[in-house]
Design a protein that fits this description.
Strand content: 15-25%
Largest sheet: 5 strands, parallel
Number of strands: 49
Number of helices: 26
Shape: globular
Strand order of the largest sheet: 3-2-1-7-19
Distance between the termini: 40 Å
Length: 982
């Protein structure tokens, strides 16, 4: 083979994870003379993604939000990317790497960034079905697919990785067990007391922890059915997730003869060179001075050193502090320095603080003289972490008493004298962020992230980085940009007050008064929520209908396949046998999937949009009303049976929950709201995990606010104690309306409170003590909402004009199922989305087999009145569905294929219309990808496109220029089983 002619030196990066990508990024930035050609291989089927936040995959079941860089980034920067292709061998003699696909690349340098693999105990039965590791997106997809087959799951490993996996398993609805070999959780980071505090918080979430357990065998016949421990105990579970540590992926290095450490890992020097100076190693595969680092921050530092040395900068890696701050199952946990230095008598001394009521534990370890901070542990409250870490890293003796560091607030004891680290992933301090903002005149969070790299790792520091940006802008006399979007130079709070004071009742009036342009998928739903909160007009009135996201527009949560859920209200969870019979009869008649939810309701899934009014007509006749499960509004008020049945109940929690839910039903808010009422302190209704919760006492109720479950669980704070029902209602009126008036769009009550100056104490002053003098007005606003309530679905059922827009097609009464189902556990559900989607072929065909553009004809698709102003409807054209959009009262008309090319669902006609820098667009209601209505291009940055068609209006008739029906067949929604045939 001839030597390559490319004058550049070739660097092959083996591994395209977070650290491998960071190396590519830094080499591109430092190689100003473009002396290097970069070729990178990754064995996973996608470019680098954020593995630190892997669990967030469960939020949307979509890998895209985790993406660190798109394929376009590699192309734009001249980096050759090969995904789904692992490097199989490194031939050091020929200086060549060979991949599993047979691709051969000669190299001048190799950078090993192969990371690590999960450690799996070699116990009998480990190969059984239902046993998983927790490392890649594919692992999580497999866990998701298998979880419905299990009622309980065990996570082996009580360290950082194990608790992260346990959180994910718990949120899938499985009874969760954590099995840890050591006698305490997180044995490498926490001392006994800190571990006990963490254990109490985790067990309070109904996660069962088994300490000091060694797995002897995985039980079961073909599939896992339990664990047998070395001490003779056993645990019955239907799924196991192994997350008990990692091992360096050093097999490639071993095979080519590189030196490997006694505990694994490729031995590297301070310049990241291996025993072969032409091969470097970075990240979890590297063993530096006998240490293998399992965090991303040291990996990033190694990547910086390796890239710097290749480009002529003399850089050295001198080790890395393993301090870390995490949120494990919603609990703040931090560890820095040597938290165990006090274990040896006389060597060091510790100061501790413990608050069992809040579940907070802090331990700081100092040298014997108290002049230096050596390490520490923080559980339950890690707000001082950045400050303490900076003190620990300082070379100067303490200039204050050690006890001043053990604050219970925000580190204020230091008076701002310490330059706290704000981003541990990229080792960025607060002063560096502030200096970058000032020097670069930065005004947006994206600019700060790009300039400083703060917030580009795990993302945990973003709130603090945002706060620093706002503070610097204010200090510079600049106005902090909290604009809703490009169409409104106002925050949500400002828009609320404008609409309230000026009695604005429509979006058109609002944007004419204080906005610009035509709006978009961001400001329209936000404005619709404000108007609904203020005036409580029906959301499907013509002036409001097309402002709504698809859930509110069709009064049901959109599901896979473009179907919707039907969720009647069951106040307080109390339901009669006759009502249960009606739900069963309706579900059976319309072939709906049924599920009892954690909110004490029965959800019915799989309803096509055109059947929703018929289904609801039957439910309303039986006495049900809309459950508002689709809205950014009150969802449920959960209750236990209270004093009605329970021997421990001290108050009628069911009756009070019904009263509360019926009072606040339909209340539109910045985010969805959930409440609960528990009949005693045993807390069976989980009131402290809700936006508002009431817990019965012998004297009345304790009112808790601003808690939530979900991705970032937060325990609610006590607002007031021992309230009678009427007083509790008054405080709730004030609290909810104050939240509606002041919170930003899509902000949960928990986040709203965390950002509030003064926190719960200030909120208590506003709500209980009426510090702002708003109590009477807030109560009056709430009463106006209560008095104007109407069941949204009854209003649709009784109005033929509103029902008309639920028809599947504007030009025919025909219906198309357009979705395939599979049977599962006696019910039906949509078939799984394929892991890979084939791009939609254009009408002209691919370049390799171009054919003449088919002739087009003008086809009448309906009357002007068939299409809502600023909205769309689908029409049927042969086997295809075409979306027709009416852009404004006197604006343009547009048409496109109705099938979104992302997940191949026929839903684009139900998307929100808007504009982006003057370009008309539609937002897909499923995943919010936006497409130009002029060119069809995806405006969200993806390489996908929709077909668009001309529209003309003659009198009252609407025409679309379409190819013959047989030519548009390829735009029909493709059955999932046949997607590979597109």
């Amino acid at each position: 083979m001839n030597r390559k002619r490319d004058p550049r030196r070739t660097v092959v990066v083996v591994g395209n994870g977070m650290v491998g990508h960071r190396f590519c990024e830094r080499l591109v930035a430092l190689d100003l003379e473009r002396r290097y050609r970069i070729v990178t291989f990754g064995e996973e089927p996608r470019p680098a993604y954020d593995r630190v936040n892997l669990s967030k995959f469960f939020d949307k079941r979509d890998a895209e939000p985790l993406q660190i860089a798109t394929r376009a980034w590699y192309d734009d920067n001249g980096v050759e990317l090969h995904v789904g292709d692992r490097v199989a061998t490194i031939d050091r003699e020929r200086r060549m790497v060979v991949s599993t696909s047979g691709r051969e690349v000669e190299y001048d340098a190799v950078v090993l960034a192969t990371g690590s693999a999960p450690f799996v105990p070699a116990a009998p039965g480990v190969d059984k079905k239902g046993i998983f590791v927790y490392r890649t997106i594919e692992d999580l997809e497999a866990i998701l697919a298998y979880a419905p087959h299990a009622a309980a799951a065990a996570v082996i490993g009580g360290g950082l990785l194990g608790l992260e996996a346990a959180k994910a398993v718990r949120e899938l609805g499985l009874q969760t067990h954590v099995v840890e070999f050591a006698p305490r959780l997180m044995p490498r980071q926490l001392d006994d007391e800190g571990a006990r505090t963490l254990l109490a918080k985790i067990e309070a979430m109904d996660v069962r922890v088994h300490l000091g357990k060694s797995t002897r065998e995985f039980l079961g016949n073909g599939k896992v059915e339990g664990l047998a421990f070395a001490d003779g105990d056993a645990l019955e579970v239907g799924m196991v997730v192994v997350s008990a540590g990692i091992r360096p992926r050093d097999e490639l290095a071993r095979a080519c003869g590189l030196e490997v450490g006694p505990r694994g890992g490729v031995v590297v020097d301070d310049a990241m060179r291996t025993s072969d100076p032409e091969i470097l190693a970075v990240g979890e595969v590297a063993s530096h001075r006998g240490m293998v680092y399992g965090l991303v921050a040291p990996g990033y530092e190694m990547a910086e050193v390796a890239a710097g040395n290749l480009t002529g900068a003399a850089k050295a890696f001198a080790g890395f502090d393993m301090s870390t701050k995490l949120k494990l199952m919603g609990v703040d946990v931090a560890s820095f320095g040597d938290p165990f230095a006090d274990a040896e008598a006389g060597a060091a001394r510790a100061l501790t603080f413990e608050d069992p009521f809040r579940g907070v534990y802090k331990k700081l370890v100092f040298n014997a003289e108290g002049s230096r901070l050596l390490g520490g542990v923080l559980v339950g409250d890690a707000s001082d972490y950045g400050t303490l870490l900076s003190v620990f890293k300082s070379d100067k003796p303490l200039s204050f008493a050690p006890g001043e560091l053990l604050s219970t607030g925000k580190g204020s004891a230091l008076g701002g004298l310490v330059d706290a680290q704000v981003c541990s992933c990229n080792n960025v301090t607060e002063s560096q962020v502030c200096e970058a903002i000032r020097a670069g005149k930065l005004t947006t969070l994206d600019q700060v992230k790009s300039c400083t790299q703060a917030g580009t790792g795990c993302g945990g520091c973003l709130p603090r980085v945002t706060g620093l940006l706002k503070a610097e802008l204010k200090a510079a006399g600049a106005r902090v940009d909290d604009h809703l979007c490009e169409h409104f130079p106002h925050s949500r709070r400002e828009l609320y007050e404008i609409a309230r004071v000026r009695n604005v009742r429509t979006f058109d009036d609002l944007i004419a008064m204080c906005g610009r342009g035509r709006g978009c998928e961001t400001c329209k739903p936000a404005a619709a929520s404000i108007l609904a909160s203020l005036w409580n007009e029906h959301v499907l009135n013509p002036a409001h209908a097309t402002l709504q996201d698809t859930n509110d527009r069709f009064l049901g949560n959109i599901q896979r396949g473009g179907t919707y859920s039907v969720v009647p209200r069951v106040p307080g969870g109390e339901i009669t046998p006759d009502q249960l019979i009606v739900l069963g009869r309706v579900a059976k008649k319309y072939d709906l999937y049924t599920k009892i939810t954690g909110g004490q309701r029965v959800d019915l899934f799989g309803a096509p949009v055109h059947l929703l009014p018929d289904i609801w007509a039957e439910l309303i006749e039986a006495g049900f009303e809309s459950g508002h499960a689709y809205g950014k509004s009150l969802r449920t008020v959960k209750s236990c049976v209270g004093s009605s049945w329970c021997r421990f109940g001290v108050q009628d929690s069911v009756g009070f929950a019904i009263r509360v839910e019926l009072r606040y039903r339909g209340l539109r808010a910045p985010h969805k709201l959930k409440g609960a009422v528990s009949g005693c302190v045993r807390e069976c209704a989980e009131a402290q995990g809700k936006d508002f919760g009431l817990i019965a006492t012998e004297k009345g109720y304790n009112l808790y606010v601003c808690g939530n479950g979900g991705a970032r669980p937060r325990h609610a704070d006590l607002l007031a104690a021992d309230l009678d029902e009427d007083t509790a209602i008054r405080y709730l009126d004030r609290f909810l309306m104050y939240y509606v008036r002041t919170a930003d769009k899509l902000t949960r009550t928990s986040t709203w409170l965390e950002a509030m100056d003064g926190g719960i104490e200030y909120l208590r002053e506003v709500i209980v003590d009426d510090r702002l003098g708003l109590a009477e007005e807030l109560e009056r606003q709430m009463q106006a909402h209560v008095d104007s309530y109407q069941c949204e679905w009854k209003a649709v059922v009784d109005d033929p004009e509103k029902r008309r827009f639920f028809q599947q097609f504007a030009n025919t009464d025909d219906v198309e199922p357009g979705i395939e189902f599979v049977a599962e556990r006696g019910q039906k559900r949509p078939v799984d989305w394929p892991s890979d989607f084939v791009a939609v072929e254009t009408l002209e065909g691919p370049p390799s087999r171009k054919r003449p553009t088919p002739s087009r004809n003008w086809v009448r698709v309906g009357a002007v009145a068939d299409f809502p102003v600023d909205g769309g409807r689908a029409i049927k054209h042969g086997a295809a569905e075409i979306a027709v959009y009416r852009y404004g009262q006197d604006g343009g008309w547009y048409a496109s294929q109705n099938t979104c090319p992302h997940k191949r669902e026929a839903v684009l006609a139900r998307g929100i219309l808007g504009e982006q820098k003057g370009v008309p667009k539609v937002a897909c209601p499923l995943h919010k990808k936006t497409f130009s209505l002029e060119s069809g291009a995806c405006l969200s940055g993806d390489a996908m496109k929709i077909a668009v068609f001309p529209v003309r209006v003659e009198g009252d008739d609407v025409f679309v220029e379409l190819p013959p029906e047989n030519e548009t067949a390829k735009l029909a929604r493709v059955p999932k089983a046949c997607v590979s045939c597109v």
